[in-house]
Every structure is written in structure tokens, then in C-alpha cells.
TrEMBL record:
Lineage of the organism: Bacteria, Pseudomonadati, Pseudomonadota, Gammaproteobacteria, Lysobacterales
Organism of provenance: Arenimonas fontis
Protein name: DEAD-box ATP-dependent RNA helicase RhpA
Ranges where the record places region Disordered: 379-437
Compositional bias per record (Low complexity), positions renumbered to this chain: 388-398
SMART domains named in the record: DEXDc (SM00487), HELICc (SM00490)
Record-annotated DEAD-box RNA helicase Q domain positions: 1-29
PANTHER family named in the record: ATP-DEPENDENT RNA HELICASE RHLE, ATP-DEPENDENT RNA HELICASE RHLE-RELATED
Residue ranges of the motif Q motif: 1-29
Domain Helicase ATP-binding: 32-207
Length: 437
């Protein structure tokens, strides 16, 4: 199947082809024709499946076909997202896909000054990509006008509800025209999401391309039991042995992530941290350093569990297990994307046995537990009912090492273009590339 066959206009197909995108992913093949036909959509898809293009392409086509209304240019499409990082990445995609269209887009998020955003809105834009809180700030100041919005997208709706944005979303909805096309994308469809969908959508078509809480088949999982006091030493040993690989390391607290990044730096491992207390400039700087390969390790709280697009990232490490089992799925979704292989390593202390049990119940599988020589914990990791965690499941192979080729920090030519077998880092949720690339 090609993008031509989905009914996309030539300008969009040209932009996709110029980036090496030829074949649509499953979510794109199902969602794009329905969206182009004007249907409201409920899309069930995790990051890494191509969902950004699934709504961005029909959004761009609709605005290009209908054309602007008379008078001052006001937003005709609104994309609501939970985080600043995702807002930037969605906007980058809209600009890349719409390079041959006369459409302007802008982002609205907190952590930066209001005035530059106000100036952009005054000049006029066609598409707004916004976090709910900052958008409400502009609506309260009357610097944003949503009266001409024809198309609304809620991206990662489950995440927005988890972060407590439901009241803000409802306040934004009250400012939108009743007559509009709405698309809602979510990794899960819990009761809260379905209730929201009933309020938002009109006779929606549902597209589900990944089962609930599914994990990529090409990701191997391994658990290393270790005392909490020795996690840092074990992490340094593991990362030092894999000097050629970049890794995303998840911690539980903002202070802990900062401290861990500093400790890795002292051990000679280049690392940066990202979390909610960082300013927007600091977060973007850290992400840029990681994506360029200047920093080999990115230490993050769950603020980075969704929305980050790091092509061909070989390794995710859970330095601390997440308190909510579903966040394990979102964390490891940063690796094993777009058909590539990946590995998820979890350092589990005896006190985290119950959290591990919840994760295994959610995944409906037993994760391989391998004790690293010299790091056996003082007591067994128990997962309830006084039963110690089991060893490697029967038939499970040890996790594979990743070679140097294709890791996230690999660079292209001196002009910044991607080299052979590389992906550009600026495009989230890419469609499938040509095999020749």
C-alpha cells in the first residue's frame, strides 16, 4: 500500500517521498481514509506506531482544501497534547508534512514567556499545537481565539487525564464551535477515556492497531535483582560495558534523576537529566544533546515516558520501577520502535518486588531475572505470598548486545543529513521508510 492509495493530495505525498516515507503504517492505513471522509475518530495506538502522521496528514489536507475564511487569520485546527516535548515534536511533523502547503502552525506551552506566543497569534496561524494549561492562559487574556476551529485532535488523551487535565480540557472545549471534526488518540481506553469520547465525538469510528498495554515484540526484557544501595554501581558497570550504546534511564524523582546524572558524569559517562523542574530551555537543550550524541545517557522521570521520539534507541533502563504498572509499558515504548530491536533492563531491589509483580500481571508474562555476578541482593526479591521472584523462564534467551550501528547518537554527513540506514531525529512517529534507505 502507498500513500497515494489513501487519497492524500500530491503535495503531501511529495513531502513524504522527499523524506523517504513510502508505505503507511497500520494506524495510518486505517485512520487516514476515515479522517479524510470527515468522520470523528477514536484511535487506539501507542507512540511509535505512526499515529502523529495518522492525524497530521488528514488535518493538513482538510485545511488546504477548505482554504482560510475571510478576515484575520485565526486557528482552524487545534491539537491538544500533554507535554511541551510532544507539542514541539507534533509541530515539527506538521511543518515537515506541510512543507508544500501555505499553512502556518505554532505551539503554546508553559515554561516560556507569553509575549512571543501572543505576537505569533496576532500575526495569525492556521494550526495550534497546545498544552491545555498555557492555552487557557491565552484564552483568559483573549490573545487566542478558537471560534474558527474546524478540527480538534486530542493526542495521548489517557496521559492528559492521568496528569489531571480533564477540567482544563473541558474549559477549552467550551470555547470551540460545536460543529467540528474531532479525533482522539489514546494508548488505552479506560472508562474515563470512553466517557470523554462520548462527550466529544459524534458517531466516531474506532481504529485499534495495538492491544491494550501491548509491548513491542522485538523488545527483550531482563530484571537484575540488586540492593537499592548498589543500584548506582551496577548501572555504571552495565553502561560502561555497553559504551557504544545510548540509553534512556528512568528514575522516580526529580532530585534523584539530577543526582544520578551527576554521578554518571563523575564516572566518565556523559549524561543529562530531564524532568518537570527543568525550564523549557533546559529540557530542549538536554534533549538536543542526547539526540545529537553529545550525551550518551538521558536520565528522566516519567515526564519523558511518552512523546519522546528517539529513533533506534537500543536500551531503556528502569533504575527505579514505576509506581504504576502501566508506566512500564510507556517507558519501554521508547525502544523497539519502527521494527527495530530493543532491550529493557530493570534494576529491582527487594523492596520493589510488589511493583514487579504488578508489571508481570499487566504484561501477562514473567520477566527474565538474572543476577549479575557480585551484585546479588542481601535478601530475595519477593512478589507477594512470600514467594521469591523466579529465575529465567524456560527457553528465554539472554538479552542481546547491541552493536554500534544505528544507535540514537549516530550522525550523518557534515551538513546534518541522515546517512545510510539512519533516521532523522526531528520526525515523530514516522511512516515506514524505503528499504533502500
Amino acid at each position: 500500500m502507498s500513500f497515494d492509495s489513501l487519497g492524500l493530495m500530491p503535495e503531501l505525498v511529495r513531502a513524504l517521498s522527499a523524506q523517504g516515507y513510502e508505505s503507511p503504517t497500520a494506524i495510518q492505513a486505517e485512520a487516514i481514509p476515515l479522517a479524510l471522509a470527515g468522520h470523528d475518530l477514536m484511535g487506539g495506538a501507542q507512540t511509535g506506531t505512526g499515529k502523529t502522521a495518522a492525524f497530521a496528514l488528514p488535518l493538513l489536507q482538510r485545511l488546504a482544501v477548505t482554504g482560510p475564511r475571510s478576515g484575520p487569520r485565526k486557528p482552524r485546527a487545534l491539537v491538544l497534547v500533554p507535554t511541551r516535548e510532544l507539542a514541539v515534536q507534533v509541530n515539527d511533523s506538521l511543518k515537515a508534512y506541510g512543507r508544500h502547503l501555505r499553512l502556518g502552525s505554532a505551539t503554546l506551552f508553559g515554561g516560556v514567556g507569553m509575549q512571543p506566543q501572543v505576537d505569533t497569534l496576532r500575526r495569525g496561524v492556521d494550526i495550534l499545537v497546545a498544552c491545555p494549561g498555557r492555552l487557557l492562559d491565552h484564552l483568559d487574556q483573549r490573545s487566542a481565539d478558537l471560534s474558527q476551529v474546524e478540527l480538534l485532535v486530542l493526542d495521548e488523551a489517557d496521559r492528559m487525564l492521568d496528569m489531571g487535565f480533564l477540567p482544563s480540557i473541558k474549559r477549552v472545549l467550551a470555547k470551540l464551535p460545536d460543529k467540528r471534526q474531532t479525533m482522539l488518540f489514546s494508548a488505552t481506553f479506560e472508562d474515563g477515556i470512553r466517557k470523554l469520547a462520548l462527550e466529544l465525538l459524534h458517531e466516531p469510528r474506532q481504529v485499534q492497531v495495538t492491544p491494550r498495554n501491548a509491548v513491542a515484540h522485538r523488545v527483550s526484557h531482563v530484571v537484575h535483582p540488586v540492593d537499592g544501595s548498589r543500584k548506582r554501581d551496577l548501572l555504571i558497570e552495565l553502561l560502561s560495558a555497553r559504551w557504544q550504546d545510548q540509553a534512556l534511564v528512568f528514575g522516580r524523582t526529580k532530585h534523584g534523576c539530577n543526582r544520578l546524572a551527576e554521578q554518571l558524569e563523575k564516572a566518565g559517562i556523559s549524561a543529562v537529566a530531564i524532568h518537570g523542574n527543568k525550564s523549557q530551555a533546559q529540557r530542549l537543550k538536554a534533549l538536543s544533546a542526547f539526540k545529537s550524541g553529545d550525551a550518551r545517557i538521558l536520565v528522566a522521570t516519567d515526564v519523558a515516558a511518552r512523546g519522546l521520539d528517539i529513533p533506534l534507541l537500543p536500551l531503556v533502563v528502569n533504575y527505579d520501577l514505576p509506581m504504576v504498572a502501566e508506566d512500564y509499558v510507556h517507558r519501554i515504548g521508547r525502544t523497539g520502535r519502527a521494527g527495530a530491536s530493543g532491550e529493557a533492563i530493570s534494576l529491582v531491589s527487594p523492596d520493589e518486588g510488589q511493583l514487579l509483580r504488578q508489571i508481570q500481571r499487566l504484561l501477562e508474562t514473567e520477566l527474565a531475572m538474572v543476577t549479575v555476578e557480585g551484585y546479588a541482593p542481601g535478601r530475595a526479591v519477593r512478589m507477594g505470598n512470600d514467594s521469591p521472584a523466579r529465575g529465567r523462564p524456560s527457553g528465554q534467551q539472554p538479552p542481546r548486545r547491541h552493536g554500534r550501528r544505528g544507535h540514537a547518537g549516530q550522525r550523518g554527513d557534515s551538513h546534518g543529513h541522515a546517512g545510510p540506514n539512519q533516521h532523522r531525529t526531528s520526525q515523530p512517529d514516522r511512516p515506514t521508510r524505503r528499504a533502500s534507505r
